[in-house]
Amino acid sequence: MPFYRRDAKAQRNETNQVPKKYFSSLRLCVSAVRMIEMNDASAAIHLPNNLFAGKTAIVTGSSRGVGRATAVRLAEAGANIVVNYLSNEAEAIETVRMCEEKGVKAIAIQADVSEYSGAHEIARQTIERFGRIDLLVCNAGVWEGAPIEEMSEELWTKIINTNLKSAWTMTKACVPAMKKRTAAAIVMVSSTSGQRGEANYSNYSASKGGQIAFTKALACELAPKIRVNAVAPGWIETAMVRDVFEDEEYKESILSSIPLHRMATTDDVALSICFLLSDWARHITGEILNINGGAVLCG
Fold first, then answer.
1. What is this structure's pTM?
2. Which of 76, 151, 193, 256 is the most exposed place for a label (fewest CB within 10 A)?
């Protein structure tokens, strides 16, 4: 059964196989979370080291990419960090090291957050180690797709469970402890794909659109104790994505579709997440923050 995966070289080859009417959707609606090597470059911005002082943050899927960048920025701002990973222990340990370099405490917890038992274990170990949960970033996710008539039930379920069900499991597991805090906050990492749809990735779009609706429902349900927001990134600059830009025509077609004429870095997304988690956004809840350089404009 054929399926589509977000691999830069493969994606370039796939553009010759996908009907042209789908092409603009495929190139504009790119996930916030790619299971590939991410750009570690950070903006020349330093967060106050007391912004999250004394707080504990859980970041799912934080062994690399947006998750790692977010964990490190939260550590820079004073939070103790729980690094969740599924299988890449070495990378998770590296994220822990990077966080500890910021002068905070950090631990890594292996768990499959698509299962409630995994989420519950993360919450349990976090409380056992730090005694509290203040901040939650639901970042774990995968992107695989196929034309609807070729999509297997297994592939549909995998994406929905990893991207959407995991947001439910983590929220359910962490909210009881978060309600005991005075300024708790949750951020879901969604995608432009959940806002405008994406041909040949209907499962992914459904999962990310579900996250957006889930965010808005929880914002109402958990107020005023817990704020809940989401980010919706588009293209994110990575080492592997640069390979596809060896095709100058394709590169120009992508960049010209973005009003700011560049892709986001993982740090661009991480800083936006930190803003929504912080008291700088204390009167913001139920918001979907677009991080796409103007490529997708929606309220």
1. 0.85
2. 256
